[in-house]
């Protein structure tokens, strides 16, 4: 295995009775990478996360954390893993420093290094000024920061964050996203979220799971290319017969919309925008609009999870 591959999931499968919740998932996450893990309710996402974190045994397959088999050497593998569940495991009656000290000891950090680990985690997560405050008196945003701090206090190779920005205000969301990007400099990060714009803002790569199987694996750049729908939206003051638009080089299909407006479909490899503009000028059609249409990440997500046809997945 590549030394920079910190998460290696191989043919992961999980049955509950006769129901197969996860079916043969395989993927890797490299050092310095943030992977967005998406899926609708019931898709098998939570089951997968539980298996990757060692909280649920797979029926088949294996998980390597920093090269260590999670089933064969669970204690050693989990030592290289930091986890923030959707509900942070916080003791509200403790101060931030008390809780982080407790977390450091749980992670078997030697006694003479506990204080140093607490200070480092507190600084990285923006908690320097609240160390002596009760966790129960902190805002939701700061409680999330404490949750992330306990996940990274032992400097794990892998950090898994489940819905880390749920319930936060826009400023807090931005701060947590920045923190996640900073974490990726030293860790592999899996970010499980239902907030689709968060994936585009934070992740390097995205995976979508549906009915227990991966239906998309792509980089954010590749995803952006997918979102470029092969169509132009055209508005004309003096529209010609549809046949005139159909005859423009590169136009495959003319879809009439409201009066004077059309959607011109073309192949992804060609863009007839320049030819359309030239034809409009030459024919005196009065070009009012010429806009490439785009899919949103939500459109792609809905199409994939409804099992509608999509472009073939990238590796």
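^ Assign residues to that structure.
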């Amino acid at each position: 295995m590549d030394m920079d591959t910190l998460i290696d999931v191989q043919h992961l499968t999980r049955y509950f009775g006769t129901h197969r919740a996860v079916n043969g998932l395989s993927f890797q996450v490299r050092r310095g990478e943030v992977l967005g893990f998406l899926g609708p309710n019931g898709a098998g996402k939570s089951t997968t996360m539980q298996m990757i974190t060692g909280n649920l045994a797979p029926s088949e397959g294996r998980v390597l954390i920093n090269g260590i088999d999670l089933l064969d050497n669970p204690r050693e593998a989990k030592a290289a893993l930091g986890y923030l569940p959707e509900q942070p495991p916080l003791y509200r009656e403790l101060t931030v420093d008390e809780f982080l000290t407790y977390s450091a000891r749980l992670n078997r950090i030697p006694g003479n290094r506990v204080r140093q680990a607490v200070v480092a985690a507190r600084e990285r997560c923006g908690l320097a000024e609240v160390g002596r405050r009760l966790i129960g008196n902190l805002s939701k945003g700061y409680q999330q920061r404490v949750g992330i701090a306990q996940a990274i206090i032992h400097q794990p190779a892998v950090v898994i964050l489940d819905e880390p920005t749920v319930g936060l205000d826009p400023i807090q969301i931005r701060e947590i996203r920045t923190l996640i990007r900073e974490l990726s400099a030293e860790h592999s990060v899996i970010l499980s979220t239902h907030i689709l714009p968060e994936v585009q803002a934070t992740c390097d790569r995205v995976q979508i799971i549906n009915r227990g199987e991966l239906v998309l694996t792509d980089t954010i750049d590749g995803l952006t290319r997918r979102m470029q729908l092969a169509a132009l939206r055209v508005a004309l003051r003096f529209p010609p017969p549809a046949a005139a638009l159909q005859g423009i080089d590169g136009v495959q299909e003319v879809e009439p919309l409201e009066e004077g407006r059309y959607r011109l479909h073309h192949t992804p490899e060609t863009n007839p925008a320049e030819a359309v503009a030239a034809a409009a000028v030459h024919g005196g059609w009065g070009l009012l609009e010429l806009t490439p249409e785009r899919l949103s990440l939500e459109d792609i997500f809905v199409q994939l999870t409804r099992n509608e046809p999509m472009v073939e997945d990238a590796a």
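The CA atoms of residues 25 and 196 lie 22 Å apart.
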